[in-house]
């Protein structure tokens, strides 16, 4: 079960709240095609943010374009304080989230979804650490950290990340490279 009160894209208010993470700064870079899928719900998060939807809160400086302007529906987090606060990811049995991004930063928190309240410790996060993508997942039986990228992704090029979860089985795909894993408990 993964249920929370908020999902953060581009970082979070408190990056140190991610247990076991070595990254303590938000993502700085450009993202596009950020989709949120949980059971029967499907949302285009960037469109909701751009349109001023009440479902999304914007913190810090966020631009809905990339510096070169060659992509559609992008978002740029221009400062380390910038992030979006989205509706809860209530993916009790299954869920998918995917996005494309580019950055020159070697470290940064991209997504953070923490538990609703103690003792619930459900957690999902995606971070860049030393130029690689890592997924953090805790469904209540202990934390799990999985490297998802084969090559460094802090090269300024576009990269695609797809995360899928069904029960305790998960798959992280970065630029077509799949890593399957199963959480404990």
UniProtKB/TrEMBL annotation:
It comes from the Eukaryota. Residues 1-66, 73-185 form the Laminin G domain. Pfam families: Laminin_G_2 (PF02210). CDD domains: LamG (cd00110). InterPro entries: ConA-like_dom_sf (IPR013320), Laminin_G (IPR001791), Neurexin-related_CASP (IPR050372). SUPFAM superfamilies: Concanavalin A-like lectins/glucanases. This is Laminin G domain-containing protein. It comes from Callosobruchus maculatus (Southern cowpea weevil).
């Amino acid at each position: 079960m993964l249920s929370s009160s908020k999902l953060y894209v581009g970082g979070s208010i408190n990056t140190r709240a991610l247990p076991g993470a070595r990254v303590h700064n938000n993502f700085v870079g450009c993202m596009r095609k950020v989709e949120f899928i949980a059971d029967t719900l499907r949302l285009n998060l960037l469109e909701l943010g751009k349109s001023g939807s009440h479902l999304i809160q914007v913190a810090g400086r966020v631009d809905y374009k990339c510096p070169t302007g060659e992509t559609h529906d992008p978002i740029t987090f221009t400062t380390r304080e910038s992030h979006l606060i989205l509706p809860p990811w209530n993916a009790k049995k299954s869920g998918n989230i995917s996005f494309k991004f580019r950055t020159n930063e070697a470290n940064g928190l991209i997504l953070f979804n923490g538990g609703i309240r103690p003792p619930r410790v459900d957690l999902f996060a995606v971070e860049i650490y030393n130029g690689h993508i890592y997924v953090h997942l805790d469904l209540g039986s202990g934390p799990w950290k999985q490297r998802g990228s084969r090559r460094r992704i802090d090269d300024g090029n576009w990269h695609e990340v797809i995360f899928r979860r069904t029960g305790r089985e998960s798959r992280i795909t970065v630029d077509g490279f799949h890593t399957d894993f199963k959480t404990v408990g």
